[in-house]
Amino acid sequence: MKKQYKRIFILTGAGISAESGLSTFRDSDGLWNNHKVEDVATLEAFEKNPAFVHKFYNELKPEILNAKPNPAHLCLAKLQEKYKGKVNIITQNVDILHEKASSKNIYHIHGKIDEAMCLECGHILQSAEDVDMSTICPHCATKGKFKPNIVFFGEMPLYMPEVEKHLRECDLFVSVGTSGVVYPAAGFVYTAKYYGADTIEFNLTTTSNNYLFDEHIEGKCSITLPEFVEQLLETQENNGE
Ligand code: APR
Q1: By alpha-carbon position, which residue is closest to atom 5 of ligand 1?
Q2: Which residue's C-alpha comes closest to atom 14 of ligand 1?
Q3: Cα-to-centroid distance, 23 and ligand 1 (Å)
Q4: Is the preceding peptide bond at 157 cis, omega within 30 degrees of 0?
Q5: What's the topology of domain 23-66+113-150?
Q6: Alpha carbon of 136 to ligand 1 centroid (Å)
Q7: Could you report the per-residue pLDDT of 186-203, keeping only the tens digit for each?
Q8: What does pTM read for this prediction?
Q9: Atom of ligand 1 nearest to the CA of 13
Q10: Which residue lies with its CA nearest to atom 29 of ligand 1?
Q11: Neighbours of 47 (CB within 10 A)
């Protein structure tokens, strides 16, 4: 990839945060923090037992919020700062490691661990503390109507209009640390490719939609991604941009 790109679309998954010590979803025989995803990340589970689902996320929150960004997060922030083209980060992760790395233009399409939504009025509460059935909405004063602002299976991901626009306009699509099995995110590469973008995948292993990528860079993304960012910046310098 020796080109100067105008718009780069970076899709990140749990693999970019693995080296910051956070669990991925499908590397440990399908359990996410020792729970089956369908027990803690579906609307049915939440409606059946909201207290249990709140407890799961409250227990997860401190570990996720205390994690530190690794070189993969940091190099993306550097790219956003130094690259002449626009770099958008679309993340499936609910952690805030891109924010901690000082990235901007971040779209959390599956929500964020430190947010909860009031089902009465739609208010988004940002809190590092526990949110549960006793939490009172500061906006409408209703008690016990918060849901973790995590996009559950069966719900529509967030920011899809913006994502569609960026997919149509990007000339480079980069996928980092995602197994590419959960839609619609797993299908983003199709759209980017359809509209003519170069496509590159960073993963520890080959993934199911690996064949869709022009390039596949295998290895730990804390090593492979910074190398790639340096190449992009070097190309930009050599082009006298
Ligand atoms: N460097 C690069 N890739 C890595 C690393 C690493 N250090 N560690 C793990 N990976 C890769 C794994 O090979 C795997 O392909 O990261 C990917 C993680 O895949 P998943 O656990 O399936 O996570 P993700 O793709 O983000 O899941 C997507 O599924 O459960 C839902 O909403 C949840 O956002 C999540 C979505």
Answers
A1: 15
A2: 179
A3: 9
A4: no
A5: SIR2/SIRT2 'Small Domain' (3.30.1600)
A6: 34
A7: 999 999 999 999 999 999
A8: 0.95
A9: 26
A10: 182
A11: 10
Tell me whether the CATH fold assigned to 1-22+69-110+157-241 matches the one assigned to 23-66+113-150.
Answer: no
Please give the DSSP secondary-structure letter assigned to residue 175. E
* Torsions phi, psi for 208 (to 5 deg): -65, -30
Which residues does ligand 1 sit against, CB inside 6 Å? 13-15, 18-19, 24-27, 37, 92, 110, 177-179, 182, 202-205, 207, 220-221
**CA pair distance 90, 65, nearest whole angstrom:** 19
Q: How far is the CA of 51 from the centre of ligand 1 (A)?
A: 27
Q: What is the pLDDT of residues 86-109, one digit of tens each?
A: 999 999 999 999 999 999 999 999
The DSSP call for residue 182 is S
Q: Where are the domains of the chain?
A: 1-22+69-110+157-241, 23-66+113-150
Task: Using pLDDT thresholds of 50, 70 and 90, give the confidence band for residue 21.
Answer: very high
Tens digits of per-residue pLDDT, 31-65?
A: 677 788 788 999 999 999 999 999 999 999 999 99
116 neighbors 102 (Cβ within 8 angstroms): no
Class of domain 1-22+69-110+157-241: alpha beta
